Amino acid sequence: MRTVRRLAALCGAAAMLLGMPGSAEAAAVKVSDATVIGTHNAYEKDKYTYFANALDSGASLLELDVYTDGVSKRWRVSHSNPVGNDNNCEYADSPDELYSKDRNQDLGSCLDNIAAWHQAHPAHRPIIFKVEMKNGFNNDRSLGPDEFDALVAAKLGNIVYKPSDLLGSSYSTLDAAAQANAWPSRDDLTGKVIFELIPGTVEQSNPLDTYWTDEEYGDHLRDLYAAGNISAAQAFPAVLGAASGDPRTSRYDSSIRPWFVVFDGDAATYVNNGYDTAWYDTRHYLLIMTDAAGVSPAISSTSPTDAEVAARLSLLAADHASVITSDWSAKSATVLGSVADRG
């Protein structure tokens, strides 16, 4: 059945409407029932000159790498420098300052850029910001989940779609809300942003750190809900790494498993291993498939043709992805803004 579905996806890709995000059908579909495109490491200057350009790109997911600098108590944005900033975020917090100010700023400035860009484009598409916490939270240095929430809330206010929004007044866990498909439509999320948190490569390779971002933020959500303060949480922690079955059962204490409804892993691992990705779709969990270009037949990770992107989107939508990501920053907003039906 999967082979038939994959062939159908490839054959139908040429007919895909790349302008689909502006259509009524695309706007009305629920976030959990759509497949969109994201850009890996969108903060890098070789991808976009300014982070505002990344926001202009049409991509529905933009990734930021964040280090907690315990010495200066700053949230650094960089690929490999834990004590400095190396990125396209500007020291700009109003629309007229974008595309012109000094770059290499910290996470607070990246959020200021988002807020300023939102002022200029209040009816923008829903955008997921995937934050890789490269070396994890540092709660002992006041760079923990509480401080992350406070920073995002202070900079972005009510444009953030939060865990409490998914819960509403009807559900006591994110799992229960997701399985009831309580997600809003893309139209309802006009002008909204979502934050996804994943553990980082430095954190995962540190033998002295066994309490990673995902578990720490899962505990944070559980405890906030128990204290009646879940509205303070600004992000959704993701289960990182493609796996067969329910990966939450082997990774987390039963008390926090219901607080994970976002999953993030390598596209080829999901698809080539024949994992049951319909499991995520039928439960209305968000499934982010990374390195979409690497799925067979492999295409360019930087400069595929428009038809190849359309085919890959169609293929992985049939494999139940919610978001596919690659380094396709050079593609047009029409291409990166494409939306497909999931499943």
Compile the SSE list and pairings:
Elements: H1 2-12, H2 24-28, E1 34-39, H3 51-56, E2 61-69, E3 74-77, H4 107-120, E4 127-133, H5 145-156, H6 163-167, H7 174-179, E5 193-199, H8 201-205, H9 213-226, E6 235-240, H10 248-251, E7 262-266, H11 267-272, H12 278-282, E8 286-290, H13 306-318, E9 323-326, H14 333-336, E10 340-341
Parallel strand pairs: 1-2, 1-9, 2-4, 4-5, 5-6, 6-7, 7-8, 8-9
Antiparallel strand pairs: 1-10, 2-3
Notes on the protein architecture:
- The protein is of the alpha/beta class and 343 residues long.
- 32% of the residues lie in helices and 16% in strands.
- It is built from 14 helices and ten strands.
- An eight-stranded parallel beta barrel has the order 1-2-4-5-6-7-8-9.
- Helix 4 packs parallel to helix 5 (145-156).
Number of helices: 14
Largest sheet entry: 8 strands, parallel, barrel
Radius of gyration computed on alpha carbons: 19 Å
Category from helices, strands and their pairing:
alpha/beta
- Amino- and carboxy-terminal Cα gap: 12 Å
Q: Main sheet: which strands, in order across?
A: 1-2-4-5-6-7-8-9
Mean pLDDT: 93
- What oligomerization state is this entry in? single chain
Which of globular, elongated, flat, extended, rod-shaped describes the shape? globular
How much helix is in the residues? 25-40%
Protein name: Phosphatidylinositol-specific phospholipase C domain-containing protein
Keywords: Hydrolase, Signal
GO molecular function, one term: hydrolase activity
EC number: 3.1.4.-
